[in-house]
Structure formats: structure tokens, C-alpha cells
């Protein structure tokens, strides 16, 4: 597989794809390109009319956006069955769990957008809404630790990307540390299978 992945080192959606590629053994065949969304390159704009990251570009498949779709595409590239069970019922349950994990990123992104607004336009009500979504989602996942399990798949990779980003952008809330089950799970998988960011990842300037 020869591909180009546009993204940044801090985006949780990009890191979800990056971790997936490393787990599946596909990273070395990929060229990573850093993106400045304020001044996007013509090549990036041509690949994604919505100007969203990540976007994976392959010669045969074209441009693929949305982190979950990219991950499932990569799983098929790697032979299938590594990110999701093949049995329909088990696959559906795992997709549902992965969607909750992805929802943490969405809620956290909403909170961050609100807090970055100029103070006169910032809404404490909107911020509290997003924070409450985060807390409910994390409480639910803390109760699902046994169901999540210790192995890498779509749900657990998504949760790692979500929790690491939440700790980066919302550390003052102590959300993960307040849930020992989640904190312990994250520490265990980080030591077990979460790969480090490859040297030079997304360091190449935009085309």
C-alpha cells in the first residue's frame, strides 16, 4: 500500500488513524504530511473539500475522510478482522462501543471550541453542556472496562486517542484521573501496545 495521510500530531482523529496504521503494520508504506488548516495547501484542499483531517489519499481508492471510515478501510487493506469481529452481532456491539469512544472526542472538541471563543461571546451554559457529555461518556466507559478489554481494536484505539487528547486539552478538569478504572486501563494499554509517535510524523510541509 502506498498512501499519503494528511494531519497533525495533536488531532485525536488523526492519532486514531496513525495508531491504527502502526498496529496494522501499514505506517511505513505511508507518507505523512503536516497540515496548517489556516493556510491549507492546494493538494490538501483538492483531497478534502470540507478541509477536514485526517484524509488518506491512495492511488486506487482516492481520498478517504472520516477517521472511522479510514480505519475500517485500513483493516480491509491488512486482511480484515483485526479491528472488528467478523460475526455480525459482535461486530455491531463493538461498533456501538467505538461510537461512544468517538463521542468523547466530539464532546471534548465542542468544549474546546467554546473555551477558545473570545470571553464576551463564550457561553458557560454551552461549555457545561459539553463537559457534562464528556463526564457521562467517561462514566459509561469506566463501567465498561471489562467489555472494552485490553487488546487493540477499533474501540480501544479510539478510546486511547480520545483519553490522551482529553488529558492534553482538558487536563485542568482531571477527567481521567477522577475515574481510576479508566486511568488504570489507559496506563496498562500504553505500556502494552500503544505505539509511540514515529519520528518525523507529519513534519513534512504541505504540498
TrEMBL record:
Q: Name one GO cellular component term.
A: cytoplasm
Q: Where is the GST N-terminal domain?
A: 1-82
Entry keyword annotation includes Transferase: yes
Q: Which GO terms describe its molecular function?
A: transferase activity
InterPro entries xref list: Glutathione-S-Trfase_C_sf, Glutathione_S-Trfase_N, GST_Omega/HSP26, Thioredoxin-like_sf
Q: Which Pfam families match?
A: GST_C_2 (PF13410), GST_N_3 (PF13417)
Alphabetized, the UniProt keywords read: Transferase
Q: Which domain of life is it from?
A: Bacteria
Q: What is this protein called?
A: Glutathione S-transferase
The organism named in the record is Roseinatronobacter thiooxidans
Amino acid at each position: 500500500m502506498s498512501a499519503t495521510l494528511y494531519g497533525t500530531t495533536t488531532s485525536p482523529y488523526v492519532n486514531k488513524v496513525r495508531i491504527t496504521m502502526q498496529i496494522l503494520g501499514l505506517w511505513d508504506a505511508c507518507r505523512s504530511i503536516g497540515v496548517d488548516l489556516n493556510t491549507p495547501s492546494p493538494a490538501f484542499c483538492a483531497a478534502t473539500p470540507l478541509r477536514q483531517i485526517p484524509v488518506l489519499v491512495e492511488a486506487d481508492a482516492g481520498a478517504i475522510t472520516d477517521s472511522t471510515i479510514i480505519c475500517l478501510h485500513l483493516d480491509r487493506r491488512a486482511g480484515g478482522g483485526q479491528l472488528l469481529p467478523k460475526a455480525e452481532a459482535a461486530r455491531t456491539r463493538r461498533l456501538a462501543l467505538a461510537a461512544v469512544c468517538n463521542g468523547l472526542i466530539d464532546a471534548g472538541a465542542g468544549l474546546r471550541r467554546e473555551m477558545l471563543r473570545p470571553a464576551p461571546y463564550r457561553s458557560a451554559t454551552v461549555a457545561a453542556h459539553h463537559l457534562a457529555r464528556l463526564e457521562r461518556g467517561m462514566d459509561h466507559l469506566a463501567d465498561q472496562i471489562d467489555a472494552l478489554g485490553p487488546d487493540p481494536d477499533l474501540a480501544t484505539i479510539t478510546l486511547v486517542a480520545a483519553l490522551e487528547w482529553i488529558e492534553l486539552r482538558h487536563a485542568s478538569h482531571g477527567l481521567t484521573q477522577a475515574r481510576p478504572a479508566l486511568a488504570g486501563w489507559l496506563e496498562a494499554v500504553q505500556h502494552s501496545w500503544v505505539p509511540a509517535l514515529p519520528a518525523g510524523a507529519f513534519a513534512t510541509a504541505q504540498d
